[in-house]
């Protein structure tokens, strides 16, 4: 592997460990991105629309292990490079879009705690974003007025500019209160009142559960609740734009946890909230906001419990008559992930072999034929064309690399002909793989 292409070891370690554990890494994805070119381009078109003041809503639909989360994380990295604020959350029994016990608010808290920027990609960027906004306002006022830092005149000018800047938020629900809290944060910032700043950050995070607590701490009689948390997401999107960013992208994965809700009425309330978010983005009620949600085909299509059980969503999202595997409408609200081809998996395994060799400082011994033999065997499983996923192939391949590294005297042919690959013995081989595909070169 050439030095200029060598992956830093800390990133290589994260990539290998995450992928072997069946988890999508949050860093290093450009080193292993293969395929999905059309899907990425379609989503990045949405990003351009959002940065111009529009909004978007997409569902990424695919089986477990098909690459939904990988695509979400890839887009996450792309949009942060383009100056977006990104927030992501996985739904769970405790985190939903709507609930009677604060499950919707729990999702909001997760999104806000995961606020990320290019300079702070690991999340937790609320305070950083607020402070950066204040510094931007101060710098603009100093340049315009020539007042000195810390002077009362400058403080007055900043107050005026904050009021003028935040006036655009007043057209949104809770916009006036949101702007008022931001103004309080500015005064706490210039006065060095860290305790007040922390109380305000707690308010933005949705950590006050009673209005009396917020009143006592901040002098405001409003809190973020399970019912209106999405309104504050829209306000944050506008605010981030005012703070100099391109917009806000939120990513919500594991919609299957709504599908699994046993109570039909509770499920419908969640789908109703989803419909509100969908309508807002498509009707122009939200600005500078993109929403991407990840779901399995069953979660989307089941007419008894899935998203399609809510007729208002089914009628908006159902696929037309002309789309089919291999020819999907990537401009529709639903992007369905077709499986990666054997050729694409071959390229990915080549990348992983290079990364593994660089991580453990050995000379890669696998050649193109070895990689081709491995992929051919993986795709020779009965039913592989329908059921095999990148996650399975990747985990098998990393295990193979680990075993070859730890047992230098072991050959790849010994492993591929072992009981672990018993499914690929001649009498079990299916016709899923073109004999000629192994000639594909890396």
Given as residue ranges, the uncertain stretches (5+ residues, pLDDT < 50) are 423-442
Question: In angstroms, what is the radius of gyration?
Answer: 25 Å
Q: Kindly state the number of beta strands.
A: 5
Work out the helix count: 19
- Output the helix-strand order: HHEHEHHHHHHHEHHEHHEHHHHH
Mean pLDDT rating: 85
Q: Please report which band the strand proportion falls in: under 5%, 5-15%, 15-25%, 25-35%, 35-45% or over 45%.
A: 5-15%
Strand adjacency order, main sheet: 2-3-4-1-5
Overall geometric form: globular
Main beta sheet strand tally, sense and closure: 5 strands, parallel
Question: How would you name the oligomeric state of the polypeptide chains in this document?
Answer: single chain
Helical/strand content category: alpha/beta
Helicity, as a percent range:
40-55%
CA(first)-CA(last) distance: 13 Å
Describe this structure in words.
- The chain has 442 residues and is an alpha/beta fold.
- Helices cover 52% and strands 7% of the residues.
- The chain is built from 19 helices and five strands.
- Strands 2-3-4-1-5 form a five-stranded parallel β-sheet, with helices on both faces.
- The two termini are 13 Å apart.
- Residues 423-442 have low confidence and may be disordered.
């Amino acid at each position: 592997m050439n030095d200029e292409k060598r992956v830093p070891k800390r990133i290589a370690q994260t990539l290998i460990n995450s992928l072997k554990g069946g988890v999508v890494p949050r860093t290093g994805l450009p080193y292993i991105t293969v395929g999905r070119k059309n899907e990425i381009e379609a989503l990045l078109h949405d990003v351009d629309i959002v940065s111009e003041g529009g909004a978007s809503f997409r569902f990424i639909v695919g089986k477990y292990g098909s690459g939904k989360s990988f695509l979400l994380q890839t887009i996450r990295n792309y949009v942060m490079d383009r100056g977006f604020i990104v927030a992501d959350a996985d739904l769970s029994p405790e985190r939903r879009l709507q609930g009677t016990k604060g499950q919707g608010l729990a999702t909001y808290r997760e999104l806000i705690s995961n606020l990320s920027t290019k300079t702070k990609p690991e999340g937790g960027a609320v305070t950083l974003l607020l402070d950066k906004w204040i510094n931007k306002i101060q710098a603009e006022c100093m340049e315009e007025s020539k007042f000195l830092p810390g002077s009362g005149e400058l403080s007055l000018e900043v107050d005026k500019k904050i009021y003028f800047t935040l006036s655009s938020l007043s057209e949104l629900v809770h916009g006036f209160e949101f702007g008022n809290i931001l103004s309080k944060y500015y005064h706490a910032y210039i006065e060095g009142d860290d305790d007040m700043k922390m109380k305000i950050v707690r308010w933005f995070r949705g950590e006050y559960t009673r209005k009396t607590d917020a009143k006592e701490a901040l002098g405001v009689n409003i809190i973020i609740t399970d019912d209106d948390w999405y309104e504050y997401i829209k306000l944050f999107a506008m605010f981030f734009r005012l703070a100099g960013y391109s917009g806000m992208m939120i990513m919500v994965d594991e919609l299957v946890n709504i599908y699994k809700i046993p109570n039909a009425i509770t499920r419908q309330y969640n789908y109703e909230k989803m419909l509100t978010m969908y309508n807002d983005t498509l009707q122009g009620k939200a600005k500078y906001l993109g929403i991407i949600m990840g779901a399995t085909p069953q979660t989307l299509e089941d007419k008894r419990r899935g998203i399609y059980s809510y007729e208002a969503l089914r009628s908006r999202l159902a696929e037309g008559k002309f789309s089919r595997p291999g020819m999907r409408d990537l401009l529709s609200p639903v992007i369905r992930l077709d499986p990666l081809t054997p050729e694409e998996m071959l390229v990915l395994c080549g990348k992983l072999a290079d990364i593994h060799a660089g991580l453990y400082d050995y000379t890669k011994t696998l050649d193109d034929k070895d990689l081709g033999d491995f992929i051919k065997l993986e795709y020779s499983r009965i039913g592989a064309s329908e059921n095999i996923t990148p996650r399975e192939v990747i985990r098998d391949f990393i295990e193979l690399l680990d075993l070859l590294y730890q047992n230098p005297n072991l050959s790849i042919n010994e492993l591929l002909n072992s009981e672990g690959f018993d499914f690929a013995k001649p009498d079990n081989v299916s016709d899923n793989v073109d004999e000629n595909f192994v000639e594909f070169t890396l």
